[in-house]
Specification:
The chain has 365 residues and is mostly helical. Helices cover 59% and strands 5% of the residues. The protein has twelve helices and four strands, in the order E-E-E-H-H-E-H-H-H-H-H-H-H-H-H-H. It has a four-stranded mixed sheet with strand order 2-3-1-4. Strand 2 and strand 3 form a beta hairpin. Helix 3 crosses helix 4, helix 4 runs antiparallel to helix 7 and helix 8 runs parallel beside helix 11. The longest helix has 26 residues.
């Protein structure tokens, strides 16, 4: 567990130092991953047949961000903060987003769509996922979060205070699904084909997300007597929960061994990534890979929930809200599998022209 991986020095370009046990690095180091990302996008565009002229806008946007990073130390002295924390959970979210976008881009190229479309869809789903996951968390724990709030301003502050709470995966999936269908309708592409293409990326992103939960100390498991039981440090959410349950004394430096349910979930998500990615080549109907994900993930999630101790049962039952939603998703998967179309959409896909586009006249140019 490591909630803060490092801190970025806004006043330095490439300095490295340690303060209070936390590594501090200059903001200039952000240029390294930005450079790698830019080279990758450039090479991908070249493979797709784009010229430098076609990439002018992308190169301009990339250059603006690079220059902005270089200029940060020049103006940092005027800023109210001098360092920015890089939290373990947030860092893993970024890695998950990049990995999922890379996988989506690879599949999009295989089905005839552009890498740019994969970035557009990934960013849309990321924003919708974060908003939905946070909203679901606020709804589920509203009594604790907003208890004693002093006015509207305090309510807003608590709602935006991610450090005092978290997010719920299923909320992100629900709002993400709504954004996904809107995107498909605007682009005039089959949502089933696109869903088959992106479902492996969703699970790949979840791999990193669950590892982020491990670094953050959330989504922890129940008491574990197996050799791989994990102990969490004093003051962490799992340690505090163990003290509240009487499993630990307040002075204990670490919690009793707990099930590393975050790792269980990450392994499950990785297996589903490979399963749904491989199934795409063998599917006989549009939507099969997506339906397969809806049939397999809920079973694993319901099972893992029995090993967790961070959520109480709902509706007068021992089953958590995540287990109830998983059951609903499984039923949706069953219905979807039974009602899928009887044939595949021919590939590669071609986006429909906008209705406002004028009809082509004369010879092709």
């Amino acid at each position: 567990m490591k909630q803060t991986l490092l801190r970025i020095l806004l006043t330095d370009w490439f300095g490295v130092e340690t303060r209070e046990g936390v590594t501090h690095v200059g903001v200039g180091f952000l240029l390294l991953p930005w450079l790698v990302l830019g080279v990758y996008e450039y090479l991908a565009a070249r493979r797709a047949g784009q010229t430098l002229k076609d990439q002018r806008r992308s190169l301009l946007e990339w250059s603006i961000v690079a220059v902005a990073i270089l200029l940060v130390p020049t103006f940092a002295a005027r800023l109210p903060i001098q360092t920015l924390p890089v939290f373990g959970w947030g860092f893993m979210m970024i890695l998950g987003f990049l990995a999922a976008t890379f996988l989506t881009g690879r599949r999009f190229r295989q089905i005839g769509l552009t890498t740019e479309l994969s970035w557009n869809l990934s960013i849309l789903l990321l924003v919708a996922g974060i908003l939905g996951a946070r909203a679901f968390y606020l709804i589920q724990y509203h009594r604790r979060i907003f208890s004693g709030a002093a006015g509207l301003g305090d309510v807003v502050r608590r709602a935006l205070n991610f450090m005092d709470g978290g997010m719920v995966l299923f909320g992100g999936l629900l709002l993400g699904a709504a954004a996904f269908f809107v995107w498909c309708a605007r682009k005039k592409v089959s949502p089933l084909v696109i869903a088959d293409s992106i479902i492996p990326a969703v699970f790949l992103g979840l791999v990193f997300g669950r590892l982020g939960c491990l670094l953050n100390g959330c989504c922890y498991g129940d008491a574990c007597e197996l050799p791989w039981g994990m102990r969490f440090p004093q003051g962490s959410p799992p340690w505090q929960a163990a003290v509240n349950l009487g499993w630990n004394e307040p002075g204990d430096p670490r919690s009793i061994p707990l099930h590393p349910t975050q790792i269980y979930s990450a392994i499950n998500a990785l297996l589903l990534t490979f399963l749904t990615w491989s199934w795409f080549r063998h599917r006989r109907r549009d939507g099969e890979a997506m339906a397969l994900g809806l049939l397999t993930y809920p079973i694993a999630r319901i099972t893992i929930e029995f090993l967790r101790s961070d959520e109480a049962g709902q509706f007068g039952t021992p089953f958590t809200i995540s287990q109830w939603i998983s059951a609903v998703l499984f039923l949706i998967g069953v219905l979807l599998w039974r009602r899928l179309p009887r044939k595949l959409t021919p590939l590669p896909l071609v986006l429909a022209a906008p209705k406002s586009a004028p009809a082509a006249r004369g010879r092709a140019r």
